[in-house]
Amino acid sequence: MGILINLIVRLHEAVFGFVDRVTRGWFLELAARFVFASVLLVYFFNSALTKVGPGLFGFLRPSDGAYAQILPTLMEQVSYDTSQIAFFPYGLIVLAGTWAEFILPLLVILGLFTRVASVGMIGFIVVMSFVDITGHGVGAETIGRMFDGNPSSLIADQRLMWIMILLVPALKGGGRVSLDAMLVRSRAARERYT
């Protein structure tokens, strides 16, 4: 029996040791970024488009909808008149939130400043969830509960999965197949020749 267990352990170590060596430093990082892109890029991009003001320079002046989405209780207090909202800090918060929704997902997908962008996206999701719960008053069914046996709640379940996907690049970086890695290789090559 001991020989059989020893054989199984060796076989396990050989197979998964090989898999680990072949995928180390690129596969998990690239897969997490790919899953993020395929599941969330269009979601965040479409959401960001609803926040952009009219015209060519609309990205400099967020729409009324951006204020309603990001600062719903404040918008109610001013009867949805954004001219009554001070730029600092509220307008700046809305502008930064709008830009972040465009920029951070692209940085994660490209693997550029991957760790910072991933942590930024995690923070964005946490704030977005907080605003949905406190500002938009979503119901208990939408919020859900962890360990409730129902994986379909939009906030507790889905957004926890989003954060899990982003934890990989936040902790491991972009990996070898990323712009971060390309910049590091380029810098190392320049230093060798100087």
UniProtKB/TrEMBL annotation:
Keyword Transmembrane helix: yes
Highest taxon, organism lineage: Bacteria
Key words, A-Z: Membrane, Transmembrane, Transmembrane helix
Keyword Transmembrane helix found: yes
Residues that span the membrane, as ranges: 26-45, 87-112, 119-140, 160-184
Name of the molecule in the record: DoxX family protein
Record organism: Roseibium litorale
